[in-house]
Amino acid sequence: MARRATNNPRQVRSKSCGCQLCIEEYPDPKRKSRRDCIGSWQARYRDPAGKQKARNFAKKAEAEDFLDEVRTSVRRRTYHDPKRGKIKLSTWWETWWEIRQQTGRVTTRNRILAVWRAHIKPKWGNFPLINLELMELQRWLTGEVKGYDTQKKCKEILRALLEAAVKDGKRIPENPAAGLVITATRNEKHPDDLKPPTAAQYAMIHAALDPYYQVIFRDFADETGMRPGEYAGLRLHCVDEEEMVVHIKEIIVNDGGRLRRQAAPKTKAGFRTVPLTPRAAGAIAFMKAKWKPARTRSAIGDGFDLHVEELIFRGPRGAALNINNLSRPWKAATVQAGVARKVVNPETGRTEWWPKINAYRHDVTTRLHRLGIPEKDAQAVLGQERGGRVTWVYTHESEGARERVRAALGGESGLRVVS
């Protein structure tokens, strides 16, 4: 091990000092002479990469203490360079996001980007990393970020962003977002706002739909329980007409306002085979006769080239199905049928409409449960990773349940007490 320099820390010559050494370095006959030097003490050291650095202190003892501390941190690999922590959060975001956006689903990436732009960047984007403190972040999260889910997402993004800064050569010594606490209350929706419409309500909605959309919603979505992105991306090579099944191999998602092909469904359980009822098979036959989809199997490429000529289900003008050409006729039909109602989200205060298109999955699951289909089989057909989720999220009380309970409590169930 090399011997330490005897002149480290060393005193730096000053133009304002009048000692003999400083006058020799910076001659000035008008300067008043003095015996002791008042120049600062410079501590020199090498970082883990071997690059020499220096820092000045007013007193020699302070410089020596700093040298002992920094040499120990370099040896123990806990050293961090304060200058690297002076980078602004928005600049560090660009570095972090360049890698992060390459992983995960498109919808997840877009959600992260939306939270960053709407909440984190306006407040903290111009702050240096080293200046971010736990209590200031917590005060902002509690006082300015509304809603449980929004607070949760802000916390997750900040924690991941700053954790990467800790690991990147110790830009900051510790993660100030690691101790953030979600203070908003998670408000649960009433069961009536979550369950699907009744059979009678669905009949009124379907009657109000244009015949073309009746084929999509009534004849296919309500018969298969498939997600809108799954049947929007369905191609002819995924349909086995002899076995009367469809294979879910890819989906169409909305990527910042543009439709994109995604090579994998929502989860790995989304890769599945869905049986077709005669009515669902009839919907596919109707679309085949109308659009004559190509049986080719094109590569996904950049994802934005949808190859609409291969799609089975399309909008009434031949375009790929999207949130507009599905939601607009659906909402109009629910309003015309007198079924639609406004529901205020207790967390965000935004007004939402019930029922939604994805209520078909809830309806299908409830029907399967009522007919005694094992949970594992329903899980496989619906494409859920956990069987329990099928029960506690998608399964709702069956029609007539309240009437049967009322009759039982009123002594009208027909049961007799046996002594």
UniProtKB/TrEMBL annotation:
Q: Which residues form the Tyr recombinase domain?
A: 189-410
Which Pfam families does the entry mention?
Phage_integrase
> Might you name a Gene Ontology BP term for this protein?
DNA recombination
Residues of the signal sequence?
none
Q: Which domain of life is it from?
A: Bacteria
> Among its keywords, does the record have DNA-binding?
yes
The GO terms this record gives for MF are:
DNA binding
Sorted alphabetically, the keyword list is: DNA integration, DNA recombination, DNA-binding
**Would you identify the family this protein belongs to, as annotated?**
Belongs to the 'phage' integrase family.
Protein's name according to its UniProt entry? Site-specific integrase
Q: Which organism is it from?
A: Streptomyces piniterrae
